What we know:
Layout: H1 6-18, E1 23-27, E2 36-43, E3 52-53, E4 61-67, E5 70-75, E6 81-87, E7 95-98, E8 103-108, E9 113-120, E10 130-131, H2 143-154
Antiparallel strand pairs: 1-2, 2-9, 3-10, 4-7, 4-9, 5-6, 5-8
Amino acid sequence: MIKINNDIFDRLSAEARTSPRGRKNYNYHTYAADPLQRLLNAMEPGTYVRPHKHEDPDKREVFIAFRGKICVVEFDDTGNITDHTILDWADGNPAVEIAERTYHTVISLKTGSVAYEIKDGPYDPADDKHFATWAPAEGSPESQAYLNTIILKLRIRIE
């Protein structure tokens, strides 16, 4: 039995707070070729996840907010925001499924946020994510300004 509880949320969140990227993953799948990838992703406000999509091979992705608040944003192929939702278990909106071939990003809105991600496998870093050319690379000087632009456009608040 795999147990998912506050102890692991607390540990991952503490690691995310001290990580240069502002997030920390914990995989439940045991090998990269697993046809169902499952992981926890602890994310802190300010972490930047470059918009990307999963295609060739096509993969669906599910985000379930176990703790905190996480905004999931979808884009069209030119970078226009097409949809978004704020995942918050306490508000009755805990999960979303992203269709394959859909550009998306996730934004942590609250310290200690933890999402459970489920994605079709297998995982191959060479073709898992197709990054949007219209979005700055993670770690680039422009990435935080781009993240702030999304937050302002959506009028969302970091707690």
